[in-house]
Amino acid sequence: MYRRARRKASYFFDLVSFFLRVFFQALSPLWSWILRIPGVEFLCIRARLLCVRVQNFASLTWRGRRNEPSENNRYSSDEEEGVSGGLYNGPTVRSPSEVPEKPDEPTEVKVEKEFSGNKYRVDETDDFYCDYDSTWEDENEDPPRRSRTFQTRRNRTYKFIRFENAAKDMQNYRHDYPNLHRTRHFGQENVRTHNHLFQVDEKPNLSFYHGDTPSLPDGVYIHQFHNEWKGKYAKLEHTHSYIQWLFPLQEPGVNYEATTLTKQEIQDFLDSTTARKNLLKSYELMLDFYGIKLENEETGKVARADHWSDRFQNLNNHTHNNLRITRILKCLGTLGYRHYQVPLVRFFLEETLVNGELPRVKDSALSYFLFAVLDKQERRKLLKFAYDHYNDSEPFVWCPKKIQDAWSKAWQEQDQFSLEGNDWDNMSMHN
Predict the structure, then answer these.
(1) For a Cys-Cys bond, which of 21, 88, 156, 270 suits 343, CB 3.0-4.6 Å?
(2) What residues form DSSP beta bridges with 137?
(3) Which residues, 6 or more positions from 305, have their beta carbon under 8 angstroms from its beta carbon?
(4) Whole-angstrom Cα distance, residue 201 to residue 332?
C-alpha cells in the first residue's frame, strides 16, 4: 500500500509537470511578461526543484526486497555518507573506444569450469549461506530453495549480518534493479539556477557528459571537474553533490538534484565516444584523489601513485569514500568499463589483506567492492584470493563454509605433496 501510494504520487507530479508545460507553451508571451515580475521566477524555480526532489524521493522505495529476482533475470548494471601497491591485469582486454556490451545482455558473465562441480554446490544449511549471494550458483541449475531455516544457522555473527545486508544491495545492482521504479520528466523545459541556463531533459546525465549542461546544485561542467578540480583534494573530500554526476547509476543517491540513469540513456552513453572518454577522465580524477594511478587504459591495471601515503591516510580517515568507491565500481560496470572492475578490486584486496594498509576500508572491500564485479568467475577468483590472505581472528563470512573447507583441504593436500617431494629429494641426495 505504501509503495502504491508513492508510485501514484510520482505519476501525479509527472502529469502536473506535463500539463503545466503545455498550458504555458500556449501562453508563452503572457508567461514571459509574468516572469518579469520580481520574485516570480525564483518561486517557479523552487517549485520545479521541489517536484524533481519528490520524483526522485518517490523512487527510493524500490531498492529490492527479500523477494529477490530469479537467476534468469540477469541484466547489466552505496552512496554518500558512511565508510607500494599490487598491479593487476584485467581479465578482459578491450579498447575504451570500442563499443561495449549492450545493456540488455546478461550482467553476470557465465562461469567457466574452474570453481565448478559438486564441492562448490552450496545449500542453505551452510553456516555462511547468504540468501542474496548468487556467486556460487551455476547457470544450468536452479537456485537453492529459499526457506526460513536460515534463522537457526550457527555463526550468524554481526559481521555476517552486515555482509548479508550488503549482499542484498549488490545483488540488486548485478540484477539491474528489478524492483526499482523509475520516473522521468516529460519533455523539456528551461531552468535558471546558480546563474546557469540549462535544459532538464530526458537524458541529463548524457548531456552533462557531453559538456552541454552543468551539474546541480554546483553548476560545474564536466571539463571544469577534469581541469579545475584535479588535485583540489579538500574540495573533492568535502563536497558531496558531485559524485552522483560523475558516476551516475540507476539508483538514486543523496543529491536529489541529480537524476538516475534510464535504459535508453545507458545505451546512448555506451554509443557515445565523447561520453565514454570523459568518464575515463572522471575515473582518473578520483583515482588520483585516492592515491592511485591508471597504468594501462586498455586493461585497467592500477597501482599506487607517488603521493599514495597521504591519500591513503585520508581515505582511511574518511569512510564515506568507501561508498563513493562502490558507486564508481557500479558505474564502471554499467557504462562500458566492466573490465576495469577486477583490477581496482584486486588492488584494494592486496592493500588491505596483504600490505596491511587501509584497515577501515577492508570490510567494504570484502562486502561491497568485491561483489560489484559482474563477471562471476572473476568474482570467485577474487574471493579465493581474499580467503588465502585473510588473517583476522573473526571468521571469513563472505564465502560458504563448504567452499572454505574445500580450499583448506586443497592447501593441505598441496602441502603434503610438497613435504613428500622434499623427503624424496633428501633420500636421493643421501643415496
Answers:
(1) 88
(2) none
(3) 287, 288, 291, 292, 293, 311
(4) 23
For the stretch 217-242, pLDDT in tens is 999 999 999 999 999 999 999 999 99
All residue ranges of the chain with pLDDT < 50 are 2, 49, 52-112, 147-152, 185-195, 197-199
Summarize pLDDT for 161-207 with one digit per residue, the tens.
899 999 999 999 999 988 776 555 433 444 444 445 444 568 999 99
Helix (H) or strand (E) holding 302: strand 302-304
Contact of 350 with 308, CB cutoff 8 Å: no
pTM for this prediction:
0.69
Alpha carbon distance 5, 403 (integer Å): 44
Question: With 0-12 CB in 10 A as exposed, 13-18 as middle and 19+ as buried, what is 420?
Answer: exposed
374-393 burial, b if ≥16 CB within 10 A, otherwise e? bbbbbbbbbbbbbbeebeee
* Exposed/middle/buried for residue 344 (C-beta within 10 Å: 0-12, 13-18, 19+): buried
Quick one: DSSP state of residue 144? P
- Cross-strand bridge partners of residue 190: 199
